[in-house]
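Subject: Sanity check before I submit

Could someone independently write out the structure tokens for this chain? I want to compare against mine line by line before I put it in a report. The sequence has 208 residues.
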Amino acid sequence: MSTEARALTGKNNYFEDFTPGDVYEHARGKTVEGLENVLITNLVLNTAQAHFNEHLAESLPQGHRITFGGVTASIVIGLAMQDTGENALEELSLDKVRFRVPVLHGDTLYAFTEVVAREENPSDTRGYRDAGLVHFRHWGVNQRGETVFEGERRVLIKRRAFRTAGLELPEGVAVQAPRRAPTAKRARAKAKAGRTRVTAARRVRKGK
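---
Independent answer below. Compare away.
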């Protein structure tokens, strides 16, 4: 049983649906929890204590820990994704990122998007058929209406004509599992084996 890709996504977020100048107010909001800020900050080894040291943060102007910008950007763009990313084929860039107002634990964020431009026939479609490029500007505001984040994103998005037919592997062809990264021990053994094979090959050629 096969399911056509278009049945899994929205009906009004294909390339043809985005018109430059359109502005979207996305439906959901998200309250920033202390856990997600501190966890991500520590996982990526961000050493700025204002993100995880409340005692230190009490001496700063805002009086509380500041949410790591990576978390703020992820939340705002994530809130916009149902409308702007469901039919995305590839993310090409994210730039002009600005963090305007500190986000504190307990703040609630909302997302907005403007369609800046779209390219009917982009020079590089990364090998995809029936795709166009859309340039978005995203921004997020807190519960007080203050802009906390701005950024621009360029995305390859499916046209309505996009089909998955012909992209599947022929029957009986297995997908290869990704190679494991070599451990130091395996790497040394492989290097040693490689040197042995090269030496042997030279001998064969010399004997001829």
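---
OP: Matches mine. For the report I'm noting this point. The radius of gyration is 25 Å.
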